[in-house]
């Protein structure tokens, strides 16, 4: 039995309840303050006046994609062509090379061929949708390109041609990722990884192995192309053990706004294009029906306002089993009528508040008309629709405080202006995105509050998030992270 003392324990059931001591046993909270006075403890942990919250969860990210980004060379600080060539020469070691964060400044395949054409060299652009590659990659991926600059499908083909990782390397990537998340106070994440690396069986195996010694609540969405592997594996839906769950079937409905492939109600500016659907509705319905046949919910990537309306209508027509719910990932632009439709559905939205700060105002300039609702978190909240906070890392930094800040302030990183002020969330509701709301899709009813019978997953910060100067959210104020009663991160004092 453990006593966690000298802290401020914010239960998050309401704005005001705070305790100073908490007891835990076998990974579960057993009481606070007066109710635990008589107990005998094996261990006493001094919280050093820290502010303790239920463990923060990132409801949509790519754990392996994020770890991979951390381990790869990153050129986001370099902006000049000759600097970049010099740096590639310095790090090139006669082996395949994948660089992240390249700022497009006119490099071509010829520049890369001059460094080497013996191994693949790939530079991923900082917009995350394009690549510059050498001839070796073009040959391997059977792509013709004069410049070596690739986008979308061709870029994906080039990435697929990059040598596969060993099991050990995947594990190294996962450890790097989880350790970084622990430092941000994250105790769990819902991740989309099972299709992009070493296949369903091996990737799930690496997660099981890694989580045995590195506590973290991982919930893995199952890409629709891995569904047959899941069925063959005879694994249960959801709990594999106390740290690992298999979740909804991940599929895509439309593309992204920056590539003008989000499926919109109004055409893109100066065009008669509305975006596109990744597949026909008939194919999409087939994917939903297959998930339903195996009693599974779906998790759909959906960006455009028309796309979200279409998906809601299809989900209404092909409902999920009683007691389960589907997930919509992203949903930044909405029509008012879609909200009425959503209210009728068992549904949860995985939203990325940081996207507002990164994408506004430029995203609005792509559109001929501003959609009826833009990142409408307050409206959704008032309509009782569950919104789970997330970063989509590696797209955004998986620091929940940055997400909470964005949900409260709604400020653009580009011009510092506030956008659609009336949709601001208050601090309590913004924090709830990453605690109670982010746990909704785990189907566990004892996650997301500090309360007797709830899991002992904790995020501990230097200041009271409900009252501290909001600019403190941008500082490193994580003091401790606890998963299943075990301290997985503690700030080092120098
Ligand atoms: Zn994603």
Q: Can you describe this structure?
A:
The structure is a single chain. This protein folds into 3 domains: 2-55 and 455-490, Urease, subunit C, domain 1 (Roll); 59-63 and 166-442, Alpha-Beta Barrel (TIM Barrel); 66-160, Diaminopimelate Epimerase, Chain A, domain 1, CATH 3.10.310.70. The two termini are 30 Å apart. It contains 16 helices and 25 strands. The mean pLDDT is 96. By secondary structure, it is α/β, with parallel strands linked by helices. 30% of the residues lie in helices and 23% in strands. Helix 1 (63-71) packs across helix 6 (167-183), helix 10 (305-317) packs parallel to helix 11 (336-343) and helix 12 (353-359) packs across helix 15 (400-409). The protein binds zinc ion. The site of zinc ion has 4 residues, from loops.
Outline the secondary-structure elements.
Elements: E1 2-5, E2 8-10, E3 18-19, E4 22-25, E5 28-32, E6 43-46, E7 51-54, E8 56-61, H1 63-71, H2 81-91, E9 97-102, H3 109-115, E10 121-125, E11 130-133, H4 135-141, E12 149-151, H5 152-160, H6 167-183, E13 186-191, H7 200-213, E14 217-223, H8 227-233, E15 238-239, E16 244-252, H9 281-293, E17 298-302, H10 305-317, E18 326-330, E19 333-334, H11 336-343, E20 347-351, H12 353-359, H13 362-365, E21 373-374, H14 377-382, E22 386-389, H15 400-409, H16 427-432, E23 458-461, E24 478-483, E25 486-490
The structure holds zinc ion (ZN).
Residues 60, 62, 192, 392 line the site of zinc ion.
* Integer tally of domains: 3
The CATH architecture name of the largest domain reads: Alpha-Beta Barrel
- Uncertain runs: none
Rounded to an integer, what's the Rg over CA atoms?
23 Å
CATH class of the largest domain: Alpha Beta
Say how many strands there are. Answer: 25
Between the first and last Cα atoms, what is the distance in angstroms? Answer: 30 Å
- Give the cofactors and ligands: zinc ion
What spatial form do the alpha-carbon principal axes imply?
Answer: globular
- Oligomeric form of this entry? single chain
Biggest beta sheet summary = 9 strands, mixed
- Class inferred from helices and paired strands: alpha/beta
Query: Could you tell me the strand content as a percent range?
Result: 15-25%
Instruction: Give the helix proportion (percent range).
Output: 25-40%
